[in-house]
Amino acid sequence: MNRKCLYSRFLGKIVLLFATAQLFAAPSLAQDLQVMVVGPWSYVSANNRLFLVVPGTSTSHKVYLLPGTSALPPYKGYEIGKGSYTLNLVNPGNYIAPANLITPVLSPATLQPTSVTQTVNNASNNNYVISLPTPSAYSTSPTMGTSESEVSPYPIPDPSQIQPQQYTTWMILYYPHADGLSDQSNNLYPNGASIVLTDYGSTGDDNDQLCDHVSLESVQERNSLWHIQQYARFPEKATRSKPICV
After folding, report:
1. Confidence at residue 74, expressed as pLDDT on a 0 to 100 scale
2. Which domain holds residue 21?
3. Is residue 177 a part of any domain in this protein?
4. What is the DSSP string of 56-74?
5. Is 52 exposed, middle or buried (0-12, 13-18, 19+ CB in 10 A)?
6. 0.90 cut: is pTM over it?
């Protein structure tokens, strides 16, 4: 099976949705506050908060927390270390729902809410956990917002058995109009924020045109963090005609 890569190299490759997170789209141009979430994050909803979680074991990925909603590189000066981070709204007002939101399509998983919450509580020291208020709406970014992969709870020896899917890798979170967001250090993000998990600029990654090892590592690391087993296949990064990597 030969397919051209449908994502930019700096984007994450797969996103995980748990049963505890309920995503919805709302109907029109709004004066809202937005947060961009880019990369293979796990989304966990608990106690009226949204938790973004990613393993801290990756040797390829880095995490950036940027002011504003431009989630494109360069990211110099905004890298964050492992640990727990909290963002809250500052003086939120009314929410006006934007129109024509693109409903996210996220990779499935089978996790019990209790185990998810326990893992989040225990994850903060050696992983990345970012806590935000529950958004008023979610959507996929209309540009560069998805990437293609095949995901299954079983090995995929025959690619024709699993249909490829465009999964959301760039999520937009919508909040009421506010003075901005503040973090646990009282830093203010008046124009929204961007939370980016990326392999952009990592040594050697740009040369991995055929076997997208960073995406496969993301799946394996996520499996280890949540004690699940999923398998994935990703298309080659280049246009040349070569088999997909497993």
Report:
1. 85
2. 16-233
3. yes
4. S--SS-EEEEEESS--PSP
5. buried
6. no
